[in-house]
Amino acid sequence: MYLSKYPICLFLISVLLVTPQWASAQKEPFKWPEGKKIALSLSFDDARASQATTGIPFLNQYDVKGTFYLVPSAAEKQLAGWKKAVASGQEIGNHSVNHPCSGNFAWARANALESYTLEKMRTELIDANKRIEQLLGVKPEVFAYPCGGTFVGRGVNTKSYIPVVAELFLTGRGWLDEGPNDPEFGDFAQLTGMEMDGKDFEQILPLIEQTRANGQWLVLAGHEMGESGGQTTRLSMLKKLIEYAKDPANGIWIAPVGTVARYIKNNRKQPE
């Protein structure tokens, strides 16, 4: 009787010795500032006019800082507004000079990623940084991939330009992604960006709840800032979202992309 139980005892002992370390490593949540449960970043692309004229003043009313990825030629059209954005502490990012996307978009054919090389992309991103710094006096540290495209070339000559972004910037954010970012594991050069254009707060709330359940970082991405029209983040949604985020009971740290990334970099356990 004793001998028949002996192998089972050995198995149980081995489980007790090994499992606690694994389980504790999996269950230990990332420690956000001030006991918060999640990080939330609001980000906007293209330097759309409505961002400078309407959206940023709206965010300033609530003392909320977002991240704005600029195409320099678009920013020039609302230069006074963008200078006010910098003065109010909004984060300015890089969104390239020519907004290259796949040539499958007919409007992007003149600047198709399929026709780019890594060298051409590197030059363009550096030029965009220089131009933004000339216009606004700040050098962008964060980048958003136009259309979410992360490649150059075609076929067997296709290459990822994520390594270029990783070299030049603190972060690179995607578009139309399917989940939030894991602060202990996520690649800063491949941050997920989840669409908030055209959505009501009730559609955003499940994303927040998912993020909170896992102690993660949700980066929302939008374009125009208003109430109607294509690719528009609704101010009515943002109002509810900001009020929800500022309620201490909800445990949300709302901050620009670069601010959150720097915090994670200084506090994560996993190697970069």
TrEMBL record:
UniProt entry tagged with the keyword Lyase: no
InterPro entries, A to Z: Glyco_hydro/deAcase_b/a-brl (IPR011330), NODB_dom (IPR002509), Polysacc_deacetylase_ArnD (IPR050248)
A Pfam family assignment: Polysacc_deac_1
Provenance organism: Dyadobacter chenwenxiniae
All residue ranges annotated as the NodB homology domain in the record: 38-255
Top-level taxon in the UniProt lineage: Bacteria
Keywords per UniProt: Hydrolase, Metal-binding, Signal
UniProt protein name: Polysaccharide deacetylase family protein
GO cellular component: membrane
CDD domains the UniProt entry points to: CE4_GLA_like_6s
Residues annotated as signal peptide: 1-25
GO BP annotations listed: carbohydrate metabolic process
GO terms of molecular function: hydrolase activity, acting on carbon-nitrogen (but not peptide) bonds; metal ion binding
Signal keyword on record: yes
